[in-house]
Amino acid sequence: TATGTAPHLTRASLGHRRDDNRRLFAAAQSFAHLTKTAFDASLATLRRHAAKTERMARAVRDLVPDARRPDFDVRLDNVRIALQARDRADVARAAIQCYRALVDAMRGHPDIPRSLDLMTYAGLRYRADLDSVPTRWQDMSGTSAFARTQWDALAPRVRGTDLRMRIEQSVNGMQIAVNQHNSSLAKLSANLE
């Protein structure tokens, strides 16, 4: 076995976990991109990217834990249904939920701290709610609280004072924007990715 690891975790199995995590992360990133472009891309571009993203998701589907796979399948179907309905807000919300499911499926010690991926999730979900008509302020409130929890876990690991201050301002700004229903502040604060 590898030195310092549990007997069941060999170097080979750790290497497979890293490879699996990279594949899951690549598919998750494709969903993040789909979320970011859902409101602005042409419908044809959105459909092409959604098809590519779905192929990537199907390729890593078996890496999603068995108990969570049915939920992942529903989330993936929701992207397709929203796209068929031309409901860009639902495309964005369904895509970010797929991102979250794939991040949650990553095992072991991912190369990137999970809190960072979950802050990305929070920023994208917050922005999708902001761009929805009507704006989903209540969901944004819960999302900003989630971002706060993730930032509190991650902040001690961030070395750069300037970066730490910028993220702290963004997380604080998210909640202030929700409290004031201030769309301009919300847009400025939502860049957590």
Strand content: under 5%
Helix and strand sequence: HHHHHHHH
User: Kindly state the mean pLDDT as a whole number?
Assistant: 90
Number of helices: 8
- Principal-axes geometry comes out as globular
Helix content: over 70%
Structure description:
Helices cover 74% and strands 0% of the residues. The protein is mainly α.
Write the layout of secondary structure elements.
Blueprint: H1 11-37, H2 43-60, H3 69-84, H4 88-105, H5 114-131, H6 137-154, H7 161-180, H8 183-189
Helix pairs in contact: 1-2, 1-4, 2-3, 3-4, 4-5, 5-6, 5-8, 6-7, 7-8
Features of the shown structure:
193 residues; mainly alpha
Short note summarizing the structure:
The protein contains eight helices and no strands. With 193 residues, the chain is mainly alpha-helical.
